[in-house]
Amino acid sequence: MNLVTALAFTAIFASVGEILFQVVFGTITAGSYKEWTYTPFASYKTTTALHILCITCGISAAVLSWVGGAWRHLGITTWLVLLLYLMTACVWLAVGVFSMPFINFIETNNSPVVWLVVPCFIVGYHKDIGKYFNIIATTVSWGMILPMLYSIVKMRGYGRFESVNPHVIYLSLVLWFAAYHFLSSESKLLRVQLARAFPLIICCLVAVYNQGRGWLMQCFLVFGLFMIKPVLLGEKKAWSRLLLGGLVMLFGIGVAAAILVSLYPEAVNGLFERGLEDTRTAQYEEFFGQVSPATIIVGGGPNATYQSNYGHAEAEMDYTYFDNQFIWMLFKGGVGITLGYVILVLIPAFRLFFRSRNHHEYAASAVLILWTLALLGLCTYHNVNWNAQNVFALILAGFCQYSLRSRVPVSAPKKVKKAYSVISQPIRAT
Q1: Which terminus of the chain has a lower count of CB atoms within 10 Å, N or C?
Q2: How far apart, in whole angstroms, are the C-alpha atoms of residue 154 and residue 152?
Q3: Would you state the torsion angle of the CA atoms of residues 145, 267, 323, 141, taken in this order, to the nearest 10 degrees?
């Protein structure tokens, strides 16, 4: 493993360690009837140190990959968009340095430091990094199964949390690694496919327990993408393999449902009772009723807030977040940040999805499409930040870009030069 890859994976594991500290040592208290309150563990010596390690290793990996020659593979469009993005990010970094307390500048996802995670896509251009994706995805998705199950078992009873909670934190971390681990499988053996589906089955179980409709939908979409993969990749006997994928999906969902119905029927009932409950419209009305178009275009900066009682029964308060991360990026960073993120991170995945040549390209592009849906607000408490899932997503984005760029016939300029030399030869007298 080369230095760039080692640094990138150190960033990922440092963040995983930070998340484990926050959840395992966090406190859970009983509130009103069937409601719980969760307070994540925070310590300057542990969580902050791991967060700083994640940022340092991620930026170092991007810089070394750039210096190592990744810049040669960037097209002119990517160069221009990246330049605009970095210029905008530097402006907001300067604002944040002089207007935010140090600890908030380093740790919170409202800090402009989060914009520096996007250049990590350069790491995906590094030679042979793709062969390590499945290793990291397998390690994280399987390694987090026991903590996820323990977060359910240790509860003294069933109840919904008032705000962020251990289950949604685990889902936000694990789902992307579990999805890549499952979708990148090249085996045609049913037992192998079922084994790779197991971390995703656990995600389904936790999503239902948490009544996370968006997270559960994401799990179903992963199974659906697995079903249609043989057809999109043009494999032999694709339709029979599609049927096999359907059986895997039904088995996975069935196992999760059977466990929940037998052990936590209240969670299943609560999920059905929520049904099509609208939890977003009020937030959009509050936001667009207060924030001007000029603020959305230019960006309000790291300290921008709006008045909201979203998720709270008491009076309105200064609110800095928004479930739809594209609107949040516009609110905090403006058009320069948002366009940069969309063009550098998301568009390559959509371009590669229907042009994938192998399971790894398909898995990388599919995960980023699901990532886009989560950013649109499908999943709660999913945001752009310096953490394991964001670093992994950015590296996958760079891998998608590199896969597309590698298909450009690099020999074309030499052919043109050779043809020019032929036609420019002086005509010999006969």
Answers
A1: C
A2: 6
A3: 10
